[in-house]
Specification:
mainly alpha
Length: 295
Amino acid sequence: MASPPPPPVASSLRTPPPTQPLHGPATGAPTGPLPPLPASSRCSPLPAQTPLNGQATAAAPAAVPAPLPPPARPSTPSYSVERIFRDFTYRRVALIRALTTDEKAFSRECNAATETLYLYGNSDGSWELRPPKLLMPPGQPDPRMLGVKLVRGNMKRSEWLGLIAVNCDAWLIRISFFLGANLGAQERQRLSTMINSLQTVREAFVASDTYRRICHLEKTNVEIDDEDEGCGTEPTICANCGDRYRRNGFWICCDECDRWFHGKCVKVTAAQAEHIKHYECLDCCSDKKGHDYDD
């Protein structure tokens, strides 16, 4: 038979939860209801955050690039057409005078030089021979500082001066269009017309009396008549080989028969002839038993 349930105990009735925390009261915690917020603090926005190290915030709009400025107008040329042509004229006159009127002084300075010289026609109408400047500006060099290089080699005098004249023309054109780099198309055309109205340096040199004189001397040096030797109008010929007299060769005259001979035909040099007081050719020597000149 089952036993009856135990009677209820008074201490088992539920008690209300304690108002204090189980682990003791918190230090400084309020015991009453929280005070209401002040009116100034309700819905107040947060202060804006200052960007660090100059960084823009993500909300800043992208910068729009500024429009490009219009192209600048070409600058005013520093040299006018008239000024460039005046400079061309003075330099041209100086170069022509160096190759014609002052040709002897020009050639004398070239022959006495020990280094490569350049010919310069200055803007004041004078010419000079000097080495080029060692220090050149960077970029395109100024042609006024270069001059005309003088290299002769084995050329004849007339050919050499003619080549210098051609190089002078090219040098003058380079200077003119170097100074007129900022000129417009019409101004460049007008400058070309003014330059072409003058003779070139080569044309002026070929038409000069200096060129004709040099050509005449070169022609007569190749073969010349014996008019200045006192033998009439007949050309002098070598009594041994029959060839005509040439000025650039050594000749010797027989003191007995007055006939002329090439030095190479009679095997006599110019140095040996200086020590011969009385020269007799082989034909005259064969008619005598001896001769009175030293070998």
